[in-house]
Amino acid sequence: MSTILTLTQGDITEQAVDAVVNAANSSLLGGGGVDGAIHRRGGPDILAECRALRAGHYGRGLPTGQAVATTAGRLPARWVIHTVGPVFQVSGGDASLLASCYRESLRVADELGARTIAFPAISTGAYGWPLDDAARIAVQTVRDTETAVEEVRFVLFDDQAFAAFAACVR
Ligand code: AR6
């Protein structure tokens, strides 16, 4: 089964998909941007599961480039897959860490049996990754990853992000 790649401009919390990916931080305890929107609209069940993860396997937090799933609470999705993007300046622009976020999220999606997944443009907000470069890495990584996911939807918040991703999927 081949994977279809689609682009939408909008809010990731409104996507009716099996799994929504959160551009989280390693604390898993919330923040701004996508993370803030997901916890706000998804409700307290997501944070409760994140706290349980921190009390268990992820006592020191979720490392950069890894991914882990929780309930999606009140979002129109079944799961939230939390991943931690690299901070552009701190990572020195190491593309492998950003690529790992997409690859690991798809691996978790496969474990869950998710068939549709929505990604934000990870690391391009607070974490400062240049949009064009991030879009290229995101699209290339998804294309190169073997997965049973049938639709990978990139959900871009503004015109500039949409244009950057559109330039990569032509
Ligand atoms: N739907 C889709 N895209 C969005 C939304 C939304 N509701 N809101 C923002 N974006 P960011 P990061 C876009 O900062 O760079 C948080 O505080 C936004 O325009 O959410 O990975 C976490 O807790 C940008 O293009 O994620 C971390 O501490 C992209 O989503 C830190 O920010 C990512 O922006 C993670 O930073």
Kindly describe this structure.
The protein is an alpha/beta fold and 170 residues long. The protein has one domain: 3-Layer(aba) Sandwich (Leucine Aminopeptidase, subunit E, domain 1). 41% of the residues lie in helices and 22% in strands. It has six helices and six strands; from the N terminus they run ββααββααβαβα. It has a six-stranded mixed sheet with strand order 1-6-5-2-4-3, sandwiched between helices. Strand 3 and strand 4 form a beta hairpin. Helix 4 packs across helix 5 and helix 5 packs across helix 6. It starts with a strand and ends with a helix. The mean pLDDT is 98.
List the helices and strands and how they pair.
Layout: E1 4-9, E2 17-24, H1 33-42, H2 44-55, E3 67-71, E4 77-84, H3 88-91, H4 95-112, E5 116-119, H5 131-144, E6 151-156, H6 159-169
Parallel strand pairs: 1-6, 2-4, 2-5, 5-6
Antiparallel strand pairs: 3-4
Helix pairs in contact: 4-5, 5-6
Bound molecules: ligand AR6.
Ligand AR6 binds next to strand 2 and helix 1.
